[in-house]
Each structure stands twice: as C-alpha cells, then as structure tokens.
Amino acid sequence: MTNTNLEMVNGASAVYSKVSVTTSARLHMGFFDLNGNLGRRFGSIGVSLQAPETSLLATPAKSISVQGPVSERATKIAEQLMQSMALDSGVHIQMAEAIPEHSGLGSGTQLAVAIGMAISRLYGLNLTVKDIAVLTQRGMRSGVGLGTFLHGGLIVDGGRASNSKVPPVIAHADFPEDWPILLIFDQSHQGVHGAQEIAAFKELTEFPAESSAILCRHVLMQALPAIAEGDLKSFGKAIQALQTLTGDYFAPAQGGARYTSTLVANVLSQLQQTGVDCFGQSSWGPTGFAVFENQTQAEILLQELKAKFSREASLKFVLTKANNQPSQLEVS
Predict the structure, then answer these.
(1) Nearest to residue 88, comparing CAs of 127, 60, 129, 57?
(2) Considering only CA atoms, which of 154, 277, 132 is closest in space to residue 219?
(3) Which residues pair with 44 in a beta bridge?
(4) Which backbone phi and psi does 183 adopt, to 5 degrees?
(5) What residues have CB less than 8 Å from 294, skipping those under 6 apart?
(6) Is the per-residue pLDDT at 9 higher than 90?
(7) Among residues of the chain, what percentage have pLDDT more than 90?
C-alpha cells in the first residue's frame, strides 16, 4: 500500500454498487507466551464460531452514514478508514447483525476488518486484512481474529516481535464441527477493553518464563495434535492449562478472579463437575465457553444448566459450532 496508489483512487467513482460482508465471532482460548524473552510476546490460540455474526452491506455515498446495530462504533471506524485511505468519497453502511460488544468474542476486530474490506472492495483499493488491521490498530496483541476472518477454523498466532505489524498466523486447522460449543453470556458485565486493557498489561507483573515454556508445549504437543486426531479430552487439557495459568495471571485486572463474571464462573464450575473437559473464558470475558463431544451431550447439559440457573436473568446460553469457512464477501 503506497501513497501513490491511494492518490490514484482519491475521489474516483466506486468500482461496485454494493459490497456485503459477513464474518463471525471467535473464541480466544488463551495466550501461551506472555513472557516474551525470546523476542516474541503473546502468541494465542482460538477458534472461529458459526454464531454470533457481524453482517453489513456497504454502498457508495457522498458522505459517511451507518444504520443498524453498533452504528456509532461503525461510523467511527468508517471515518478513520476513509481518512487513512485519503478518500474524499463516502460510504453508507447498513448493519444487519453485530457480535455483542466487549464480550470477549472479537467484536471490534471483526467489525473493523469487515468495514475496511467493504470500503476497499467498493473503491478498488485492494487492501489486505493486514493493511486494514494496521490502519485501525487491530491485532495489537492477538492475531486470532484476523486469522479467523481470513481462514475460519482453529488459529494459532506467533505473537509479536518488535517489528511485527500484526501477529502472524503460524497454524490453521479445521475444528471438528461435530463438537458443539456452548457460549455462556453474562449480559450484566463487560470484559476489560480499551484504555483499561492497555493499563492492565502495563500494570501486571512479569509472566514467568517457565510458565510460558509449559504453555508452548501444551499448544504444540497437545492442543494441535489433539485437533488432528479428534481427541477432545486432550485438547481440553491443553486449554485448561492455558486458562489456569493465564487466567490467574490476569486475575488482578479481573476483580481478583480467574473469570470476570461470577455467574459465568459458577456455570463453568457446574460443567466441570459433570465431567466436561474443555471450558473457559474467551479473552477478557465475560463470555464463557464449553466444548462437548456430541450434540446429545450438549443438549442434555444445556437443559440442566437452564434449570439450575433459571433465576439468573442476566445469563444467556447459545449453542453453536465451529466455523471452518473464511468470512464471506460478495460484490455487485
């Protein structure tokens, strides 16, 4: 991407009359090298989901306007991108669906990249997901959301070096779609985000190198082989290692607990008691997740949870599956 290319399209007519983009939420299951003394920091693993989704339709316009859910946030992103791309044209965005904000499901990254790709395609800019991430300051720590936008499935990113623009995807695999995934929402809470998130990383103590070494081993020698062999029990053990060490490390920024939401923590505890192997909190939460062996087990346990926590009005359960497809972009 160069200034010359941007100048060539500055003020030019749109290439297409409309562009639609649909992308889905992702689970961020944990970081594995928060120490970073080898020159790369963070590194993370996560998986794309079939629901919830962010879906929008973009059309050329003389000014910037957005209708639908998260319109205020989407407007700011569109304004930032149009200015960064040096375009004096506009765009109208109709938001059909949006991933819940600050829930730990990657809403900000998916929204920014979806809008960026829509504007780029609309005006023939040929920007990449990486270009858009840099322009909108997404992927500052985790590359999972960028990877799921491009590929779907299970993503492992290699963390950031001092000169990394975004964390590179170093592993990608299909996630078994016959493993149902339960999302546990606490609608009365929001996860750490924005300035609070930046401050948290600055205030936390140094992560032990020994712990990072253990977690890297869990990812490389347990989580990835388990996905290749369809072994949920082993995959769950790896995720539990990440959730335990990183969750306890982030506890000071989460009210002193491994999980942001007490309600979600209670649900996860109940699932653990029933023998569920893979569960945890996505990113800063408050959304929790659990992965089941099959649909029958998922539906039985979901009904049990609904009965047990029926008085907790802020709790919401969504049963979904992994999404092994990249984001969908259509033009006309």
Answers:
(1) 60
(2) 154
(3) 31, 157
(4) -100, 135
(5) 178, 179, 180
(6) no
(7) 86
pTM beyond 0.85, yes or no: yes
How far the first Cα of the chain sits from its last, in Å, is 24
Residue 316 is which amino acid?
K
The string over 98-130, giving b where at least 16 C-beta atoms fall within 10 Å of a residue's C-beta and e elsewhere, is bbbebbbbbbbbbbbbbbbbbbbbbbebebebb
Would you say 281 and 187 are in contact if contact means Cβ atoms under 8 Å apart? no
Contact (CB, 8 A) for 185 and 315: yes
**Separation CA 39–CA 219 (nearest Å):** 18
Burial environment of residue 289 by CB neighbours within 10 A (0 to 12, 13 to 18, 19 or more): buried
| Token pair recorded at residue 32 | 């594995």
Dist. CA 55–CA 90, nearest whole Å: 19
What's the one-letter identity of residue 113? Answer: V
> Residue 174 gets which letter from DSSP?
P
Q: Which two tokens stand for residue 46?
A: 């996560």
3-state secondary structure 11-56: CCCCCCCCEEEEEEEEEEEEEEECCCCCCCEEEEEEEEEEEEEEEE
Q: Which of 325, 281, 239 is nearest to 24 (CA)?
A: 325
